[in-house]
């Protein structure tokens, strides 16, 4: 499953960050999940709970922040936030837009316990 490989690389990222900061545990993992990232939050949470047991994250809490889409319109030059999967500008209905945010998933913050 897609989410499983995401969580595995996330865990690796967590382990190396914890090592860098000489942390013994990770208390909290905060993620930003873009609406168009293709990541299903429920599946991701499930994968996280399954994998964390054998890692430094074994009692970490997962916090997921869903990032709505942010579109920059080339027609009316407005930037808008939309809550649906669309690339149509809500102001002028143009499709000449650029997705500025909401396409990726990233690790925002780790709370470490030393
Ligand atoms: Zn527009």
From TrEMBL:
Keyword set, alphabetical order: Metal-binding, Nickel, Zinc
Cited InterPro entries: Hydgase_Ni_incorp_HypA/HybF_CS (IPR020538), HypA/HybF (IPR000688)
Binding site for Ni(2+): 2
Binding sites annotated in the UniProt record for Zn(2+): 73, 76, 89, 92
Purpose: Involved in the maturation of [NiFe] hydrogenases. Required for nickel insertion into the metal center of the hydrogenase.
Similarity-based family: Belongs to the HypA/HybF family.
Protein name as it appears in the record: Hydrogenase maturation factor HypA
Protein's organism: Shewanella metallivivens
Encoding gene per record: hypA
